[in-house]
């Protein structure tokens, strides 16, 4: 067992920082935003997750003030769109660095769908989307972490089976570290907590 401090790892053993590979898989924060003038942005974030269910709250982290963070901070809103196996190449296309004002939706060949309670549009093909209102932005080192309360949920009812959202049919993809490593959810197993109160 090797021990190292994050900035002093053995670079012969670990030439590439494995931090992102250790904390995996992670949901992809496919975030759509608009600026105060109505320009639309869509970008995937490697650091994204749910942080609370009462109220339902999600977060995404950006290394510096990129468009998604600045737009969300300016308008107080964003939308999370579920990235799936079928949308993987579209999602990857939206990770390209484009000049401000150039559409990631158009570049990736994605249709927009209107949201109900917030201004940013949704990815029309995404089977799930959360409409979010920003609750706070926190600086963590060089990163800006945006927290948003989920105020509206869009779900494609085709993937609801016997009252359960079947993620094995949706096949969400997840980030697994290094440059382009991803995983897909295709199967589940269950372990019921010993003291689960039914």
UniProtKB/TrEMBL annotation:
InterPro entries: Flavin_Rdtase-like_dom (IPR002563), Split_barrel_FMN-bd (IPR012349). Residues 21-161 form the Flavin reductase like domain. Pfam families: Flavin_Reduct. GO terms for molecular function: FMN binding; oxidoreductase activity, acting on the CH-NH group of donors, NAD or NADP as acceptor. Gene3D superfamilies: Electron Transport, Fmn-binding Protein, Chain A (2.30.110.10). SUPFAM superfamilies: FMN-binding split barrel. PANTHER family: BLR2425 PROTEIN, FLAVIN REDUCTASE LIKE DOMAIN-CONTAINING PROTEIN. This is Flavin reductase family protein. It comes from Solirubrobacter phytolaccae.
